Amino acid sequence: MIGKSICKGLSALTILQIIVLPPAFLNAQEEIKHDSMVVQTIEKMKQAKDWDELLPQARILRDIGKPAAPEILKAFQNKNNEEMFRKFFADLLGGIKDQKSIPGVVEILQDEKETPAIRSKAAYCLGKMGYPEACAPLRAQLKNDDYLIKSTVVFALGLLKDQGAFSAIGEATKDKNEWVRNNAARALGMLANSAGIDYLTPLLNDKIDHVRLASIQSLGIIGTEKTVAPLLNGLKDAVAVTEKAIVIQALGKTKSQKAADTLINILKNEDSYLAMNAAEALSLIGDKRAIPLIEDRMKAAQDSFVRGKYEAAYKKLTE
Predict the structure, then answer these.
(1) In angstroms, rounded to a whole number, what is the distance separating the alpha carbons of residues 60 and 72?
(2) What is the DSSP string of 79-137?
(3) Strand, coil or helix: what is 250?
(4) How far apart are CA 259 and CA 252, in angstroms?
(5) At what angle do helices 51-64 and 83-96 cross, to 10 degrees?
(6) Is there a contact between 215 and 206 (Cβ–Cβ < 8 Å)?
(7) pLDDT tens by residue, the chain, 319 residues
(8) Whole-model pTM?
(9) 247, 237, 191, 165: which is closest to 214 by C-alpha?
(10) Which of 172, 131, 140 is nearest to 155 (CA)?
(11) How far is Cα of residue 199 from the mean position of the Cα atoms in its chain?
């Protein structure tokens, strides 16, 4: 009788709380809750009128992380969704780095009925995920005739640091399309293989500015003694101040004394922007001849940003 009266006084919710539920059941309930939230968030994203509405929903999915990946993959695969949203879902998926999603993304990459924009997003997504198992399907697309797909595949293989694709990426520096050449140059920098210097050096004479700049930056990343001579030649040939500055930065990354005399001369004689970059480069090389020159530049600098750069270089050389 006592037991019955107690039960009558308890709500159904209280009774459920007394029952010890198995972990598998609780996990399943949590997954259902997550899936429901993810689906609702994806629908809100598709209805967003501007970035202010879209980005908060994207952050929710990003914060949920891998449990959100299956539904995000479905949204990326769904050809009824607008292309803009599908590309956005691909970026989200790449950032979440869910390994289980790779086969589904590979299917999109290989689907010839998909647009080049969607297939290239699939390639970038695979590169961003960072798993070596994506290398083989990406390599298979290196001969794709579409420049958008090919250029993104090359870049993705660079992100994956796939040394097995080195030769193919090197050959892509000779492609007729400027964006393929650009991404091939950038990928060679990511691979950081000194053999890439032979592919990058000819690009210093490329007619397209952004291809030259990509080559310069990658030569700086590789940063061996062998990169100094082509970079010094590139500095002589450069006309635009921005391009000269990028060459100077690359020379600093080589940390080679062979570049020091040229950089000292720039620090002495060139305008403030180039001199500032030369000071930073010399601080990386560790040439103490730059110290009094940097002191003079610090005193003369009127802009706080420029002065700060000189101060940082001075500190590095004197500490």
Answers:
(1) 12
(2) TTS-HHHHHHHHHHHHHHT-GGGHHHHHHHHH-TTS-HHHHHHHHHHHHHHT-GGGHHH
(3) helix
(4) 8
(5) 30
(6) yes
(7) 434 443 444 344 343 343 444 454 334 444 545 678 889 998 888 888 888 888 998 899 999 999 999 999 999 999 999 999 999 999 999 999 999 999 999 999 999 999 999 999 999 999 999 999 999 999 999 999 999 999 999 999 999 999 999 999 999 999 999 999 999 999 999 999 999 999 999 999 999 999 999 999 999 999 889 999 999 999 998 889 999 999 999 999 999 999 999 999 999 987 888 999 999 999 999 999 999 999 999 999 889 999 999 999 999 999 8
(8) 0.83
(9) 247
(10) 172
(11) 22
Amino acid 48 reads A
Q: Where are the alpha helices (DSSP H) in the chain?
A: 2-9, 12-18, 23-47, 51-64, 69-77, 83-96, 102-110, 116-129, 135-139, 147-159, 166-172, 178-191, 197-200, 209-222, 228-237, 241-254, 260-269, 272-285, 290-300, 304-318
Q: How many residues does the chain have?
A: 319
In angstroms, the CA 252 to CA 283 distance is: 8
Please name which of 85, 84, 127 lies closest in space to residue 109, comparing C-alpha atoms. Answer: 127
Please give the distance of CA 136 from its chain centroid, rounded to a whole number: 20
Residue with tokens 């399943």: 28
**Where in the chain are the domains?**
52-131
Compute CA 146 distance to the chain's CA centroid, rounded to the nearest angstrom.
Answer: 22
The first and second tokens of residue 14, run together, are 């209280």
> Which tokens in the block code for residue 276?
């500032």
Is residue 69 within 8 A of residue 100, CB to CB? The reply is yes
